[in-house]
Amino acid sequence: MVYTTTLTAPAFALRRQIDRLLEESLGHGHTGQGDWVPAVDIRETEGELTFSVELPGLRPEDVEVTAVEGILSIRGVRTAMRSEGEQACYHLVERSYGSFLRRFNLPQGVDADKIEAEVTEGVLHVRIPRLALPEPKRIQVKARVEAVTRPSKAIVAESRPGSPKKLAVTARAK
C-alpha cells in the first residue's frame, strides 16, 4: 500500500521528475538516480550578497564551497540513511539523495577573499561582502603661467602736412 501525505503529493512528485528530466537533458545535472538540486535564495544588501541553500540532514564536512574566477560553486553529497529489513519496508520515499552541484556567476564588486559559509538549522548561508566603493577624489585644476616675451605695442602719432592725424601702432621689444 502506498501512502500519500496530501492531495497534492502526486503533483510534487511529478514536478520533481520533470525537473530531473530537464536537468539531465540540458546537461546541468549529473546522470544517475539520486541526484538532486537544493533550493537556493540569493539576497543582496548594500554590504553583502547572501546565498541561502536548503541542505537538511547534511553535515558541514559533506559540503564544499569554492569561488574561482568569479564563479561560486556549492557541491555536496547527501547519503540515504534508510535500511530495509524483514520487519520494515518503505511505502513512500520523497526525500532526494545523492550528489549536487550548484554554480553561480558572482557580480563585480564583491570580495571573494572574504567569503564566509556556515550551516544553521539545515540551511547553508554563504556571505560574500561587497568591496568598499572608492570615494570620488576631487582634483584641483591649476593654472600654469609661462614667461613669454611679447613685443609691446605703442601708439605713435604721425602728422603730415595737409592730412588728418593718423595713429600708428609700432612694436617695441621689452
Q: Indicate the CATH architecture of one domain.
A: Sandwich
**Order of neighbouring strands in the sheet with most strands:** 1-2-7-6
Low confidence ranges: 1-5, 28-33
Radius of gyration: 39 Å
Fraction of residues in H or I helices: 10-25%
Provide mean pLDDT, rounded.
77
Number of strands: 9
- How many angstroms separate the termini? 115 Å
Q: What is the strand content?
A: 25-35%
Report the principal-axis shape: rod-shaped
What's the CATH C level of one domain? Mainly Beta
User: Topology as H/E string?
Assistant: HEEEEEEEEE
Tally of separate helices:
1
Structural class: mainly beta
CATH fold category name of one domain: Immunoglobulin-like
Sheet bearing the most strands, described? 4 strands, antiparallel
Describe the protein's architecture and organization.
This protein has about 170 residues and is mainly beta. The chain has a domain at about 35-130: Immunoglobulin-like (Sandwich). About 10% of the residues lie in helices and about 35% in strands. The protein is built from 1 helix and 9 strands, in the order αβββββββββ. The protein has one helix at about 10-25, and strands spanning about 40-45, 50-55, 65-70, 70-80, 100-105, 115-120, 125-130, 150-160, 165-170. A 4-stranded antiparallel sheet has the order 1-2-7-6, with no helix packed on it. The protein has a 3-stranded antiparallel sheet with strand order 3-4-5, with no helix packed on it. β6 and β7 form a beta hairpin. The longest helix has 18 residues, at about 10-25.
